[in-house]
Amino acid sequence: MNRSWKRWAQSAMGAVLICDFSFAYLNRNGCWLYWRGSTGITIFLLVAAWLFLLFGLRWKGRISLVLVPFAVIILWPTDIIWVHHAAAESRAVATLRNLRANLENARITQPKDGYPQVMPTVNWSLDSFHPAYRYEYVPSRSPQGKIFEYLIRATPARPDCGCCIRSFTLLDDGRIYVTLEPRPATMLDPLLQ
Description:
The chain is of the alpha+beta class. Helix content is 50%, strand content 15%. The protein is built from four helices and four strands; from the N terminus they run ααααββββ.
């Protein structure tokens, strides 16, 4: 094997090893990939390609390639993750309000049946990779079995990842209660303003 092929083979092996160890560290609790999804995989593929070229090129190529990360670091938005978390909480509240509207429409169109037996489906397309919240429909039934009131709980899907720490509970009258504690919100918690 000539020296050029050997250098590129070592370059590939070094890039893969560094990216594997970095990914294992960043994703040690499963949260990094959970929140970034396909974007996170793309980031690692780009880093692997950059390392492959950095290790494989000669000195002149390496010098020009070293300037690329500085441009990325300068242009990279630092608060992008926290914006995603705030957006996930806003989407949870919007989803609760949409669910309430769907349940009210069903009750109005079928007044003798009361509220539906099951919660309407949630549109997960708003969440980028995984849903940030879990939704639980808790109906209250009359002695005849008709659902006359309900509540819907929205609890963080991965509170261990440090995102979406607020839980919400929607009552059928539209009030939404919120808590920062690791449990579903109750009527003893503050109302969402």
